[in-house]
């Protein structure tokens, strides 16, 4: 049953987002436990990666240049566009929060499903996640109002628990548990991760549905913003890395568009303003349509490249 879910995970992620939209009360009920699910998803993903090779990747300057592109440059681009379009301060702050966000920890699995380098995707995800607190802090200072104050003790505590916690626990497991046993256990755990991933589109879309209930116009407005953000980040990543090769450009595109918005919300919470929660929900459907889109564009572009 779990292997069947894994095989059709791309379509099921879309179905999960639609079901969350159709049943907002259930979506809201799941929302409070999502940070705990996120913790274990990050941990299980890290346990499945060869630590020595992953650390080697993280010492590559190319990975950190990507992380700067992912967070700093895309903040500059998306917030500049938002200001040119006279976005409200609340929406601008929400967009700045999304722009600072690291990539989804499900990104390596998505990369692997289309034949791209999952290990490199994991390194890019970790680098963008580690850079996120710095860029997020700068964005909050720049885009919050003049009365903004950040509870640094709470902020650092959440960073330690939800970012460094899974990384540290994973490193300790690799240090003290025999590798053959660890990989055998992870083989079982990896089948569970798909169920964990399905919880996010279902549980995060509730606030977006509430906006639809109050105003159809506002609902479609936020959906449009979510589509534009996903599209902008995807094609910015693709175009920026297109000169390298097809695989690298698609890997950058996937990693740029997939945003771990729940982690940012868990770390910064109410500092991100009311629009962030709605935008977080509006991003779910376009984000989880990306795996199917990437599979199709990868096949199409690959065929084109083969004929050149």
From TrEMBL:
Coiled-coil intervals, chain numbering: none
Residues spanning the membrane: 12-31, 63-85, 91-111, 123-143, 155-177, 189-208, 220-241, 276-294
Keywords, sorted A to Z: Membrane, Transmembrane, Transmembrane helix
Protein name as it appears in the record: Sodium-dependent transporter
């Amino acid at each position: 049953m779990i292997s069947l879910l894994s095989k059709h995970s791309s379509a099921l992620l879309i179905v999960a987002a639609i079901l969350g939209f159709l049943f907002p009360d259930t979506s809201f009920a799941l929302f409070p436990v999502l940070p705990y699910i996120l913790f274990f998803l990050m941990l299980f993903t890290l346990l499945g990666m060869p630590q020595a090779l992953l650390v080697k990747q993280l010492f590559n300057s190319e990975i950190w240049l990507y992380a700067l592109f992912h967070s700093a440059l895309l903040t500059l681009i998306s917030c500049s566009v938002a200001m040119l379009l006279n976005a409200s301060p609340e929406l601008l702050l929400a967009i700045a929060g999304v722009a600072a966000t690291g990539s989804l920890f499900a990104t390596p699995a998505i990369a692997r499903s289309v034949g791209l380098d999952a290990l490199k995707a994991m390194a890019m995800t970790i680098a963008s996640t580690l850079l996120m607190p710095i860029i997020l802090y700068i964005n909050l200072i720049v885009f919050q109002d003049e009365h903004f104050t950040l509870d640094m003790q709470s902020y650092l505590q959440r960073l330690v628990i939800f970012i460094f916690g899974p990384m540290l626990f994973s490193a300790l497991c690799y240090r003290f548990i025999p590798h053959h046993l660890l990989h055998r256990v992870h083989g079982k755990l990896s089948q569970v991760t798909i169920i964990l991933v399905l919880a996010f589109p279902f549980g995060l879309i509730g606030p977006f549905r509430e906006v639809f209930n109050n105003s159809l116009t506002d609902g479609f407005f936020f959906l449009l913003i979510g589509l534009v953000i996903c599209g902008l980040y995807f094609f910015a990543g693709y175009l920026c890395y297109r000169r390298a090769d097809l695989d690298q450009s698609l890997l950058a595109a996937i990693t740029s568009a997939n945003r771990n918005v729940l982690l940012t919300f868990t770390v910064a919470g109410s500092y991100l303003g009311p629009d962030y929660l709605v935008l977080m929900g509006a991003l779910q459907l376009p984000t989880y349509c990306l795996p199917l889109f990437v599979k199709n564009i990868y096949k199409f572009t690959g065929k084109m490249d083969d004929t050149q």
